[in-house]
TrEMBL record:
This is Rab-GAP TBC domain-containing protein. GO terms for molecular function: GTPase activator activity; small GTPase binding. Residues 57-248 form the Rab-GAP TBC domain. Pfam families: RabGAP-TBC. It comes from Ambrosia artemisiifolia (Common ragweed). PANTHER family: RAB GTPASE-ACTIVATING PROTEIN 1-LIKE (PTHR47219), TBC1 DOMAIN FAMILY MEMBER 2B (PTHR47219:SF20). It comes from the Eukaryota.
Amino acid sequence: MFGTQSKRDLSLEIQSQIPILRPSIHSRRANITVKFQDLYGFTVEGNVDDANILNEGIPPVLRPKVWFSLSGAAKKKSTVPDSYYNDLIIAVEGKVTPATKQIDHDLPRTFPGHPWLDTPEGHASLRRVLVGYSFRDSDVGYCQGLNYVAALLLLVMKTEEDAFWMLAVLLENVLVNDCYSNNLSGCHVEQRVFKDLLKKKCPSVYAHLEALEFDVSLVATEWFLCLFSKSLPSETTLRVWDVLFYEGAKVLLNMALAIFKMKEEELLMANHVGDVINIIQNTTHHLFDPDELLTVAFDKLGFMSTNISKERKKQEPAVMAELDQRLRRLNSSNLDENS
């Protein structure tokens, strides 16, 4: 299918075969009934509706199938031949790119000590998913942070192929554009939107952090690139992802705001940037009760009334100007060194 094409041609052909499909709000909000085998091997049906997702989370036994349907991954996969993933993995085997080199470097650093991920078998499985996607989308290739996202998807979805399609639908449909591009412009936009929302929702905290010259990127970069998978306990992360696949990327902003809101009093007493980081990291690392976070995110803060898409558009010019200025400074510095 892929023959002996160059890496670039291969990537372009792969991209051309996969239309970017966004499931409609109607289809994503419909009740979902899935069949699964219970502990004794009997086939039973389970139902998940809107209230389950927000209030109780998706039962672990149903999560793989519900995510696959809810996110649009099943629809995306249905547009290509059944052999697509296997053909892709065979076609890219042995190929070396900057992306594959970085992936190999990051594999042993992805959830070290995990009983399966941190084994030769786990590394090989995660590598195939990440390398496969790096050839599917040459614009993204590979970005640090995706290793944690793909690893958790592997643990939930059980099969490489399903994890691959979940990663594809996340990057192509669910998350903001250019979040994982070379300059991380989408991630920078999200951080600016988050900062504005923090000013509106937690004005006292915002003013205090500004006085301390605290930059939200110190904590938010990891949150938005790893989708909280490196920051929150795994079960809490999965509950966040339940809502992420239901409501979209704005959920990440809700969660980020909730974390700051939960520690409002402590943050107002912080005297240094280091104190703020310690408070936030200690909070996220010990958020073992997902309901605590989700209650603050949706009951106390409420769903976003702000038009997030409009806010993102508003921030894009400033972000691109800032990134362009950084690039100019870097190029100027390199010229000075070489002269």
